[in-house]
Specification:
This protein has 223 residues and is α/β, with parallel strands linked by helices. It has helices spanning 2-34, 107-110, 129-133, 206-216; strands at residues 42-52, 57-62, 66-67, 73-78, 92-96, 99-100, 116-120, 140-142, 150-151, 164-166, 174-175, 188-190. The chain is built from four helices and twelve strands. The termini are far apart.
């Protein structure tokens, strides 16, 4: 009958459309996945690994860091590990004379037990309080030889384990008054050769540094 023929034709058309949509969905899936992690925002950090038994640290000395944009991340480490060590043992990072304009965005999450961080002579322009908040086990922070201008309010508020900080050879003009407030374990600090600190040697007496910074670095600035 004509009615049966029409129903059969409609059913055939519906089945064809469903088949086409399913095929299209399968074809699109790989394209979606390929953009899940934009290549320019993520990289593997190639390392030379070193161990220091006296300080119980296992360090990655970076070979290839290239962080030009805020929000870039390291997802893993690559290199020849010292015997019986793995990526999980890394608790120190050294990035020296490379390209690191901003803090790697996930470093604190990747290494929750990070003790030592050095980003030196690498063009760092900003100290990220949010990233430092994730590094609450940090003991040594070395950011010498960069392009940092401002140390903001609350910068080291949650880094109470710090024993040594180095901000020498930057362009610092402003330092917030609370920089030392939470650093009860701090033993060494160096701010030598900044715009607001000239020809001052590294000091173990933090009160001397507080006076120097308050006098010359607009230390009343908070935000």
């Amino acid at each position: 009958t004509k009615t049966s023929h029409k129903m059969l034709l409609k059913l055939t058309t519906i089945l064809f459309l469903i088949s086409s949509l399913s095929s299209s969905s399968i074809d699109c899936q790989p394209q979606y996945q390929s953009y899940e992690y934009p290549p320019h925002l993520s990289q593997t950090l190639e390392c030379v690994f070193t161990a220091d038994s006296s300080t119980s640290t296992y360090d990655c000395i970076s070979l290839n860091a290239t962080i030009r944009d805020r929000g870039q991340v390291f997802y893993t480490f690559d290199g020849n590990h010292i015997q019986n060590h793995t990526n999980a043992d890394v608790n120190g990072i050294k990035i020296a004379s490379q390209v690191c304009h901003y803090f790697p965005a996930n470093l604190g999450k990747l290494l929750p037990l990070l003790k030592k961080l050095e980003i030196s002579n690498s063009g760092l322009v900003d100290v990220d309080a949010q990233e430092l908040f994730q590094m609450q086990n940090l003991q040594v922070l070395n950011l010498r030889g960069n392009r940092i201008e401002i140390l903001n309010f609350g910068l080291l508020k949650f880094n109470r384990e710090l024993t040594s900080i180095d901000f020498s050879d930057n362009f610092i003009t402003i330092v917030a008054t609370d920089l030392f407030h939470s650093l009860d374990k701090l033993k060494f600090a160096d701010f030598n050769n900044n715009f607001c600190v000239k020809n001052e040697h590294a000091k173990e007496n933090l009160r001397d540094w507080e006076r120097e910074l308050r006098k010359n670095c607009n230390a009343g600035f908070h935000r």
